[in-house]
Amino acid sequence: MSVYIQPIMTAFIMFGVLGYLLVIPWLVYSYRKYGYFSIWASIVVYSFIFYMLSALFLVLLPLPSTRNTCAFQSPDTIYYSLKPFTFIGDIFKSSSIIWSQPRSYIQIFNQSAFWQAAFNFLLLLPFGVYLRYFFKEKQYWKKALALGFALSLFYEITQVTGIYGIYKCPYRLFDVDDLMLNSTGALFGFLVAPVILALFPSKEKLLAKAEKMQKSPLVPPLSQLLAVLIDYIVIKLTFTFTVGLFTSSGFAEMIYTTVGFVVLYFVLPLLWGGKTIGTSIMRFKLANLEGDIPSWQAMLKRTVALYLPWLASMSLNLLDHIKLEIESHFYAIHVWVTVAIFTFASIMWLTLCIHAVLVMLKKGKRTFYFDHAADIVPRKNKGIS
Question: What is the pTM of this model?
C-alpha cells in the first residue's frame, strides 16, 4: 500500500499549493462564466485537478535516487513491451487454476499481475467519468477513447524517456498493455458515468442557474470583493516589479501603495466611466443611485473607506519593526501606541468580517460599507450575457 500512499500524499501536497494559487483565478472565471460562485462546479474542477495529479504521481513515483539509472541496469535491458495481451499470460503463468474446478478461479486474485492489470484499468476510469461530465453526450465515446489513449501514451512516453531526459535510462517499462488497459478504462468510465453523475447536480441545472443569475441586476457580493482584491493585487504586483526591486523599505511601500489607492480606486474610475481594472474584469461598474458615473466626492469617500483599514494594518506593521531599547524615553510611548493600534485594528477587522458575512447573506441586496458610505451602487455592464 505504501507504493500508492506516497504518490497520493505527494499529489495532496501539490494540490494544496495549486489550489491556493488558483483560488482567485477560478473565482474570476466562475463569476464571468456563471454569474455566481458554484460549489458544485468548484468541486468538479478541484477534484479533477487532484485526480490528474494523483494519476501522474502514481505513474511516476517513486523516483530513482540517482539520475544515472543506467548504472543499476544490465546493458541488454529492454525498456518496452510491444506484444499485446501479455498480462493475460502473466496472470495464468504462476496460478494454480484448474478450468474444470471453478473453485480454483479465485486464485486469480492472488496474482500480482492481475492487480497490476486492474490498477491500469482503473487508473483512467475516473478520467472517463470527467469526460462524460464535460462532453455530456454518449456520441462522444470515440473522443473519450482517443483522449484516454492520448493521456496513457503521454504517461508511457514520459516513462520510457526517463521523464524526458532527467534520468539517463528509463526506470519503468513502456508497455502496450498499459495503453490498452488505460484506454479501455477511460472508455468504460465514460459509458458508466451517468450512473455516478446521477447522484450529483446536473450540468444543465448549473447552466440554468447561471442564466438566471446573469439576468439579475444585482452584482454578487463576492464578485464585488474580488474586484477590490484584484485592484489591490495590481498595486502590490506593480510595486514588487518596480520599486520593490530596488528597496525593501516598508515606508517606500506605504507611499507607493497610497499612491496606488488614489490612482486605481479614485482617478481611474472617474476617467473610465465608473470602472476600475477589477470591476472591468468582473463585468460591472460603479454608479450613483441614479445610475450615472459617481461624482469625485463620492469616489473620494469610497477610496478613503477602502484605504483606512489598510492604513491601520500598515501602521501597526511599521511600528512592529521599530526597535527601541527599554531605557529609551520613547519605549513606553511606543508600547502603548502599538497596543492601541493593535486593539483598534483587531476590532476593526473583526467588525469588517462580520459586516462582510452579513452582506454575503443578503446576496447583493445590501452594499458593502465603502459603497454605502459613498452612495455608490455596483451595476452590471450592459450587454453582458
Answer: 0.80
pLDDT in tens, 265-286: 999 999 999 999 999 999 899 9
Residue pair 324/334 in contact (Cβ under 8 Å)? The answer is yes
Taking residue 163's Cβ as centre, other Cβ atoms within 10 Å add up to: 15
CA 378 to CA 289: how far, in whole Å?
Answer: 10
Is the predicted pLDDT of residue 341 greater than 50, yes or no?
yes
pLDDT digits (tens, 9 = 90+) for 244-268: 888 878 788 899 999 999 999 999 9
The two beta strands, 284-287 and 377-380, are antiparallel
Is 385 a residue whose pLDDT tops 60? no
What DSSP element (H or E) covers 315?
helix 296-320
Task: Tell me the residue length of the chain.
Answer: 385
Which residues contact residue 236 at a Cβ distance below 8 angstroms, ignoring those fewer than 6 apart?
A: 257
Compute how many other C-beta atoms are within 10 angstroms of the C-beta atom of residue 226: 21
Cell of 22: 488558483
Calculate the dihedral angle through the C-alpha atoms of 259, 264, 266, 269, rounding to the nearest 10 degrees: 160
CA angle 137, 44, 118 (to 5 degrees): 75
Q: How far apart are CA 103 and CA 118, in angstroms?
A: 21
- Calculate the average pLDDT of the chain: 86
Burial readout 54-72 (b: 16 or more C-beta within 10 A, e: otherwise): bbbbbbbeeebeeeebbee
CA contacts within 13 A on the Cβ side of 286: 33
b or e along 98-125 (b: 16 or more beta carbons within 10 Å of the residue's beta carbon)? eeeeeeeeebeeebebbebbeebbebbb
Query: What are the domain boundaries of the chain?
Result: 1-62, 75-215, 216-380
Q: What are phi and psi of 172, to 5 degrees?
A: -140, 160
Q: Give the C-alpha separation, 168 to 294, whole Å.
A: 65
